[in-house]
Amino acid sequence: MQQSAASRSAAGQVEGNGTNRNYGDISSRSIPVGIASVRNLDAPDWIKDVEVEIENRSNQPIYYVRVTLSFPDVPKSTELDGIPRGVSTTVRFGRKEFFAHPGELATPEDVPIKPGERAILKLAPDKQEGLKAYLNRHNVPESVIKRVWVRIEDVSFGDGSGYRSGSIPFFPR
Description:
Elements: E1 10-13, E2 22-25, E3 33-39, H1 46-49, E4 51-56, E5 64-70, E6 88-93, H2 97-100, E7 118-122, H3 125-137, E8 147-156, E9 162-164, E10 168-170
């Protein structure tokens, strides 16, 4: 996945511990949720500590958001099927059923991100372990990673509508 600098309109840089890691927001600007910040990329255990802050810029509650973190500095691998592929992982807010079943409706137990509010997403322990295992298996030190691309992939408003694949809307059936 190669993006031009122009398509990464929101970016940040953190410095500390000699990492000098950058992040770039490559999300669609046509969706009503955005990346407010990416923090702790300079932490000693940044894979565990990284935080992605998202903001609901819509006029309705958001019940699910999935964000992909990609690492373009990690060499691509062909081990899966012979096709060169980069490494990425995801963070999410809300029940995974909103992703597995587009059109899933919110229940009284679901807590939304209200309009204008923000939420902080962190890598789940299994995602942390998976990323670290991949890097170890491929003999890639974490220090190789200087850039992290973040992209909002999926959004659900809990009423059967939302966005898939970055910006493709779906509606109640």
